[in-house]
Specification:
The structure is a homodimer of 138-residue chains.
Chain A lengths: L8 H8 L3 H9 L7 E2 L5 E2 L2 H15 L4 H11 L5 H36 L10 H7 L4
Antiparallel strand pairs in A: 1-2
Helix pairs in contact in A: 1-3, 4-5
Chain A binds a DNA duplex (30 and 30 nucleotides) through α2.
Chain lengths: 138, 138
DNA sequence: CTTGACTCTTGAGTTACATCAAGGGTCTAG
DNA sequence: CTAGACCCTTGATGTAACTCAAGAGTCAAG
């Protein structure tokens, strides 16, 4: 099913939508296995490498760090119990995102109030934004 | 009103809730003016420095970068038109936060679906999380 | 065969924001 | 006076995730 035509680093970079340097970086970081080489030293990849790269990119889009992705990749290769770990990590990530959203909402609301209260002109002493920033710790 | 007792760097670090090294770093970065010195070379601060430090900390809590804070500080010292700039920057920051929240929500929802769909056991091929990550680009 | 695009390695640089280490002066309470 | 806490400078280190530069070899089309 999967054709076995060998791909250069430039090609897989193209299909996976990442930079060539990034691929070499991922390899150094152990996120990608060392590929076969041509006699010339050129790296040779197959479709599996493209999938793996896409996996990494997706996971990154979901906010996983490269360290976490390394874990996910290991878990995804673990046929026994790996799925449980994956679910755990995903749930943890979800929790972290939720917390981040709450935190950002808090900040947003505070800032929003200040922006609305500020007339946008007049003396610095009358600007509620500046006043809030300069105020002694509440 | 403001007492003129001179404060050491350790004292203002304490009252503003930042590290001593951070204060020297801010000074190098131009966020804090160079303070007077004792003959020994010790930095001497007053209450205004504490206010300024708190300003910086608050602004950082609101998600402003140090570059933006440098701007805010300059604007806050500008008696003519400064307030307008402050309001603009704050509004821009608010907009950025809103966008970030929307983005995080999107990610959150995607991840949440996957976590809920994953049974947490079984074969990797049946895990919707892994499937979603490995899937060809949609 | 030539040319231009592609790939190789090593090693350094980037951003943002600190944080630490080393080696040495200074201050103050007892 | 002395111990211990505090402060000084310079310069290096750390994190995350790349990104780039230099110099050299390789490949494919025409």
């Amino acid at each position: 099913m999967t054709t076995q035509n060998s791909l250069t680093i430039g090609r897989i970079a193209q299909s996976a939508g990442v930079a060539i340097d990034t691929i070499r970086f991922y390899e150094r970081e152990g996120l990608l296995p060392e590929p076969r080489r041509r006699p010339s030293g050129y790296r040779e990849y197959d479709e599996a490498a493209v999938s793996r790269l896409r996996f990494i990119r997706r996971a990154k889009d979901l906010g996983f760090t490269l360290d976490e992705i390394r874990e996910l990749l290991a878990l995804s290769a673990d046929r026994h119990g790996g799925v449980e770990g994956v679910r755990e990590r995903a749930a943890a990530r979800l929790k972290a995102i939720d917390e981040r959203i709450v935190e950002l909402q808090r900040v947003r609301d505070g800032l929003s109030e200040l922006v609305e209260a500020c007339p946008g002109h007049g003396a610095p002493e009358d600007c509620p934004i500046l006043k809030a920033l300069a105020e002694p710790t509440r």
